[in-house]
Amino acid sequence: MKKPAPSASMMAHRKCIAWWWRAMSSNATAPASPMPPIFISHSNQDNALIEPIVTRLREADWRIWIDYENIRGGAEWLCEIEAGIARCHAVLVILSKSSAGSAWVKRECLYAFQLQKPLLVALVADVLIPLHLINLQYCDLRAPQGMSKLLDSLRALSAEGGAGYAQGAVSETPLASNFFPYLAQLPQGDIAALVAQDLYAFAQQHADAVEFGGRQRPGFHARLNVGGRRATWFSVWAYRKQPAIQLNLTRWAKNANHAPAELLREWQALLPASARPRATLPLRCLDSDDKLESLKSILLEIKPQVRL
Length: 308
Description:
This protein has 308 residues and is of the alpha/beta class. The protein folds into two domains: 151 residues, Toll/interleukin-1 receptor homology (TIR) domain (Rossmann fold), CATH 3.40.50; 130 residues. Helices cover 44% and strands 16% of the residues. A hairpin with a 6-residue loop joins strand 8 and strand 9. Helix 1 packs across helix 4 and helix 8 packs antiparallel against helix 9.
């Protein structure tokens, strides 16, 4: 009986494995280098910006793997990238406005984490650190001692052989470990992160489930079991301009068994005087224990009325 032809995805996978094996074999016979190789993860829009960084690293005797030098014309790009990460000692992410939103850079980081490669971040612009990088060690190369700190970090990695490196959690999905540090870097994030942590603990105590979600707009949701299904009680969103807690007041008011006017007035009292009544409350408005406790009282009064 004739065997079925392998699928295109299987062929691509086999090709990548063969490419990786050749790369690892050639690396094993390569002459010794003063320092192990560092994989540079970056956006190609930043090539000119990266050149001085690469020069400084090489002056410090680091061997560099970077795509525009190490990938030959006509080569299997993805296979070469994966092989480069597999044989490197660490991955250095050059974080700029371009690379912060790059799907390729994100894939490289997640693949490196999968292979348990140490990841370091070099900040070269005033950007929001992506969710999947928020827990990693980073050096601000705009600071006077930024490059010196980066070199010290790389030397420490080399001396330890990577064994003593405490890797932060790398995930493109919101988790308790990365959501609150991500929130802290947003406008008035110090207040927002503290309020969100308090509401998270409150939700864990009073909700049936607390779920994180949203890669583009991270948040967590307090869910209640209603009629054998999950209904959202409230959500906390890491909006970039203004992190907030959100209630579905319209649905709640429609299903409530009593007039919601008093609770809605209490909710409105938590908002700035100039704000219109709305279901989204900025976390920065909850900047005192009294306001936070008032919000919790509202949530507990609403809880029995939550419907699908």
